[in-house]
Amino acid sequence: MENQTKDRYLINSIIRACNIMKCIANEKGSLKASDFAAHLRLDRSTVYRILLSLESCGFIEKDEDTGGYTTGIAAFEFGNVYVSNMNFIKKSRPVMLDLSVQVQEAVHLGVLSGTEMVVVDKVDSPRSVGMICKIGHKAPGYCTAMGKVLLANRPEDELAAIVQTIELKPFTKGTITSRKRFMEEMKMIRTQGYAFDDREHEEDVECIAAPIMDHHGHVIAAVSISGPQRKIDTPQQQHFINLVVEAASQISSKMGYLK
Questions:
Q1: At the fourth CATH level, which superfamily is domain 86-254?
Q2: From CA 21, how far away is CA 10, in angstroms rounded?
Q3: Is the pLDDT of residue 245 over 70?
Q4: Cα separation of 165 and 159, whole Å?
């Protein structure tokens, strides 16, 4: 009965506008008015009016050459507000600062958006030379340490479906481009509890990442150390791994996760 009462106050045009934004968010490329009409089963005139309204507010942008729409700066600004209010970021910050001092490298906090890794917080390297990465930075999940550890912890059937949609484009000579090899690495990451980016996305950057759990034991984010300093295949590799895994464990404990 309560839901029925609430339904009476819903504004259909706002719901339709939100559905259009969701379509854009889930699409890698741009969408035209006809695409929205087909996806949402709306007439084109209705879709066109909503698109004009969203564009005037800065939530979407139109490519005049193709007629396609993509997300606008206002959507990014709203996303940043959401990210800044995410509880685990505040709880992660002290651990990240401590980890950065220990490893003398940049420390990043990331979440998964579709098949991409998104940086939601960072601590720059204490050293004068280090990796510079902005909050909001996106990178393909399949060739980044945080992206791989987040993908590896998706349900197996969901991961299998996701991998079929990913174009395993080579960014460096170390990028994994074989789906079979990638799935084998996913299995290994789930078992060992951490992931490497052995110069797979950028030629001069190595990363080690571990997953962060919530109180339900679900992986909600990842923490990583990144930089040009050699960490992988060195005598200190296990030391770096232990520090990252311990940092992830500390943040998970702050989120209520009990081993």
A1: GAF domain (3.30.450.40)
A2: 17
A3: yes
A4: 10
Asked, colleague to colleague, whether 2-77 and 86-254 share their fold, the answer is: no
Take residue 59 and report the two structure tokens written for it.
């939530």
pTM for this one?
0.68
Query: What residues are paired with 219 via a beta bridge?
Result: 213
* End-to-end C-alpha distance for the chain, whole angstroms: 41
The CA-atom distances, in angstroms, between 250 and each of 70, 106, 189, 209 are 38, 18, 19, 14
- Residue 60 gets which letter from DSSP? E
* 204 class by beta-carbon count within 10 Å (0-12 exposed, 13-18 middle, 19+ buried): exposed
d(CA 169, CA 166): 9
Q: Which CATH number fits domain 2-77: 3.40.50.720, 3.40.50.620, 1.10.10.10, 3.40.30.10?
A: 1.10.10.10
Residue 70 CB-density burial (10 A; 0-12 exposed, 13-18 middle, 19+ buried): middle
Distance from C-alpha of 243 to C-alpha of 253, rounded to nearest angstrom: 15
Residues listed for the chain = 259
33: enclosing H helix or E strand: helix 33-40
CB 202 within 8 A of CB 196: no
Closest CA relative to residue 110, chosen from 209, 189, 250: 209
- Does residue 61 have a pLDDT over 70? yes
Q: Which tens digits make up the pLDDT trace of 141-157?
A: 999 999 999 999 998 88
Q: How far apart are CA 169 and CA 63, in angstroms?
A: 25
pLDDT one-digit tens code per residue, 165-216: 899 999 999 999 999 999 999 999 999 999 999 999 999 899 999 999 988 8
Token pair listed for 117 = 């890794």
Domain spans of the chain? Answer: 2-77, 86-254
